[in-house]
Amino acid sequence: MQREEPAPCVVERAPAIRQDLIQIAGEVAFILSGSELHNRQPIRNLHERFIRPIRLGQGRMFRTEQGAPVGVVTWACLSEALHKRMLTEGPQQLLPDDWQSGPHLWVVEFAVLSSRVQPMVRAIVDILETEYPDTPSAHLHRISEDGQNWRLGRWDNRRSAARRAINAALAEKVHAAV
Predict the structure, then answer these.
(1) How many structural domains comprise the chain?
(2) Considering the entire predicted model, what is its pTM?
(3) pLDDT digits (tens, 9 = 90+) for 50-88
(4) Domain residues for 138?
(5) Structural domain contains residue 3
(6) How far is CA 162 from CA 70, 117, 141, 173, 176, in A?
(7) Which of 37, 38, 39, 52 is most buried, taking the most CB atoms under 10 A from its CB?
(8) Its Gene Ontology biological processes (predicted)?
C-alpha cells in the first residue's frame, strides 16, 4: 500500500498590525491599570470599549506635555433603541455596528490617571463642542468606584452654544471698541 504524501501546510500571513495601534493599546492598558474603576475589568474591554472606537475616530488619548499618556475617552453615536436602553438599563455592551448606529451621542468610557481629571473634562467638552456642534446633548453613565452602580449624566450642548455666542459677541464689542 502506497502512502500518500501529506498536503503541504499553508501558512497564511497574519495581516500587518499597525504599530500605532499597538502603541495605543499599550497606552490605554497603562491608563486602565492605574484606574480603580477599570483595572479589574476583563481584557476584552480594552478592544471593545477603547481600541475599536479610537480606530473609528470616536476616541482621544490625552498626554502630558512630555508625551506620557494620562487619559482616554471614547464616545458613540447610538440608535434610538440603544439610546433608550442605555437611559433605562445602564451601560450596554456595544457591538461593532452600534458605535455609529444613530444620532444619540454618548460618552462611553472615560479613564484618567487621578491628578488629571479636571483638565480632561474641559478637553472632552471642547471635543464634543467642536466635533458635534449641532448635537443638543450627550449622555454618559457615572459609574461608582466599585463598578456596581451607575447614575445618568448629561452634557447640554445648548448651554455651550449660548456661552460661545456670548463670548463671540463680547469679542466683537471689544474689537469694535479698539
Answers:
(1) 1
(2) 0.75
(3) 999 998 999 999 888 888 898 999 999 999 999 999 999
(4) 19-177
(5) no
(6) 31, 25, 25, 17, 21
(7) 38
(8) killing of cells of another organism; toxin metabolic process
